[in-house]
Amino acid sequence: MRGQLGQLMQQAQRMQEEMKRAQEELGRLEVTGSAGGGLVSVTMSGRHEVRRVSIDRKLFADDPEMAEDLVAAAVNDAVNKVAEASQRMLGGMAAGLNLPAGFKLPF
């Protein structure tokens, strides 16, 4: 019993270290969301910090409401890409825990 507990604790510590490395890697990640066929693009970090926004200036002059909608769509596209990367990087680690179906870790 004691050996199993020690083994479980080592496994948990390794997983914690892997999780920390994956979160650091996610923080360095940059994704670009776009909308309107590239008229608007948003570059975002893995921590959901918007780093750059690019908007075709002619679009603003011609149709500012559409430009606003495309900015929102580009941000949402970037957020979805960060979520996909997070799932790819962190989701596999949780698989080894044998958690109940639907259980989510806090990230």
TrEMBL record:
The record's Gene Ontology cellular component field reads: bacterial nucleoid; cytosol
Please name the InterPro entries in this protein's record.
Answer: YbaB-like_sf, YbaB/EbfC
- Is DNA-binding a UniProt keyword of this protein? yes
**The UniProt record lists the keyword DNA-binding:** yes
Say where the protein is mainly found: cytoplasm
**Source organism, top-level taxon:** Bacteria
Q: Where in the cell is it found?
A: Cytoplasm, Nucleoid
Q: Write out the ranges of the annotated region (Disordered).
A: 1-22
The record's Pfam families line, in alphabetical order, gives:
YbaB_DNA_bd
Alphabetized Gene3D superfamilies for the sequence: Nucleoid-associated protein YbaB-like domain
Keywords assigned by UniProt, alphabetized: Cytoplasm, DNA-binding
**A GO term, aspect molecular function:** DNA binding
Which NCBIfam families does the record match to this protein?
Answer: DNA_YbaB_EbfC
The record's subunit annotation is: Homodimer.
Which function does this protein serve? Binds to DNA and alters its conformation. May be involved in regulation of gene expression, nucleoid organization and DNA protection.
Family stated for the protein in its record? Belongs to the YbaB/EbfC family.
Q: Which PANTHER family match?
A: NUCLEOID-ASSOCIATED PROTEIN YBAB
Among HAMAP family, the record links this protein to: DNA_YbaB_EbfC
The molecule here is called Nucleoid-associated protein MBSD_0923
